[in-house]
Design a protein that fits this description.
Layout: E1 23-24, E2 37-39, E3 46-47, E4 54-56, E5 63-65, E6 70-74, H1 78-86, E7 89-93, H2 95-105
Parallel strand pairs: 1-3, 2-6, 6-7
Antiparallel strand pairs: 4-5
Length: 106
């Protein structure tokens, strides 16, 4: 998905990524305040800065985290890394989650 592909789309509230998608570029979903939940497939290997979960501040000089935004990710994936790096709440699933839980409790 290209840079700023859905920028400032105020009505976008849902998106479904195909399992073959590999790149979500910078600002692809910046300023999409109705898009509050995103499930990112494990096939995604690159996520650009402010790809989603952010909106511009009042004067448009910087991006700020979108309050209440959440992601569904596969544990250990690039999307998991994006969520951690940006302080975004996320729900994790996948085989890697079992490994993480097991290693934590053993």
């Amino acid at each position: 998905i290209g840079s700023a592909a859905f920028y400032f789309n105020k009505s976008l509230s849902e998106i479904s990524f195909g399992s073959g998608i590999e790149t979500i570029s910078s600002g692809a979903f910046l300023d999409c305040p109705s898009l509050m939940n995103v499930k990112v497939p494990a096939s995604v290997k690159e996520i650009g800065e402010y790809a989603f979960g952010f909106e511009s501040n009042a004067d448009g000089t910087e991006a700020v985290k979108l309050e209440g935004f959440k992601m569904k990710v596969d544990a250990g994936s690039k999307a998991d890394e994006y969520a951690k790096t940006n302080g975004i709440a996320c729900e994790k699933s996948g085989a890697d989650l079992k490994k993480i839980v097991k290693s934590h409790w053993t």
